[in-house]
């Protein structure tokens, strides 16, 4: 919904407009604007006067600095009030402080153009907007009341009463039109500029990439701990059980129990190896994407043709994203597509890794169906790449990923 919705509402049929919520929302918007404007004017005037008077003792500088930063608080309230007229919230244009504590916050805010733009908005609001809110409410509601309360014993008063009755239905239109204009001006001034939005988007992308990188590093640590810790202990235990089995009487109850224990330990080792590969395959860390995908497809029940030719190893984050795209795609093909074969193709062109996984299954892969495709798209997007899926009913299914290697 856009801020011009209020003006479009005015253009509706009178009955539909007057029975809607727009007149009341506009009234509350202007009423709170007038009250808040009067409060801000009083507080800032007092702080400015006190700051100028006490400037010689040093305290005044702090008060005047507070006045300079008052636009941040005023604009925050105005963004909240704007929701009465426009449900689409305005994003905060301020970035996180560059340093810790109040000093870091202050240094960042004083360097931001948004801080001074908000101060300018506060000045404009105090100079014109808030008393225009009061004036519109006074004219729209006060004039009809004054006309209607004219002395009843005055023979010339009845035309004024008729005029008052005629002005009452006009008041909602006047109030809503000005409220829509007021909201439009507020949004135009307080909306973040392209540079500020671009910076925030860059910060979000960088933060997401750091989170994914930290997550992948933790997966590699867990895989190392499983491989070098629990898995090695189980292998050692299996060897000890085998040596104990040699000392046991053949065919005895102890020998059978040792055989059973050794079999269970072997199964546990196999399961732990599968678990460690799912967490983060050691082959990916040690040998790279082609080796890891080769090991993955060798264990797949679905025949897979692998064609990966890379002149050099991509960055670790790119390799990890590509590996899990292949792993999840093949798992989906095995579980859901009834495919009889699949293909994995990867090339490194300039600084972009292109990856394609296709199968000859029944198609119909839908990211909304909870098959893990949304998670794959998020992982690729975190690496600043993109994932495209083609899966018409009847097949085939093709996943194509492009991941920058910057």
Automatic annotation (TrEMBL):
Which reaction(s) does the protein catalyse, per the Swiss-Prot or TrEMBL entry?
Answer: ATP + protein L-histidine = ADP + protein N-phospho-L-histidine
Q: Which residues form the signal peptide?
A: none
* Transmembrane parts of this sequence: 27-47, 53-75, 119-146, 158-181
Q: Which GO terms describe its molecular function?
A: ATP binding; phosphorelay sensor kinase activity; protein dimerization activity
Q: Which UniProt keywords apply?
A: ATP-binding, Kinase, Membrane, Nucleotide-binding, Phosphoprotein, Transferase, Transmembrane, Transmembrane helix, Two-component regulatory system
Q: Does the keyword Oxidoreductase apply?
A: no
Per the database record, which ranges form the Putative sensor domain?
A: 29-190
| Entry GO terms, CC | membrane
The enzyme's main class, written as a single word, is transferase
The protein's matches in InterPro entries, at most eight in alphabetical order, are given as: HATPase_C_sf, Put_sensor_dom, Sensor_HK_TwoCompSys, Sig_transdc_His_kin_sub3_dim/P
- Residues in domain Signal transduction histidine kinase subgroup 3 dimerisation and phosphoacceptor? 218-284
Gene3D superfamilies linked to this entry: 1.20.5.1930, Histidine kinase-like ATPase, C-terminal domain
What EC identifiers does the entry list? 2.7.13.3
- Which PANTHER family does this entry report, sorted A to Z? NITRATE/NITRITE SENSOR PROTEIN NARX-RELATED, NITRATE_NITRITE SENSOR PROTEIN NARQ
Q: What is this protein called?
A: histidine kinase
Show the taxonomic lineage: Bacteria, Bacillati, Actinomycetota, Actinomycetes, Kitasatosporales
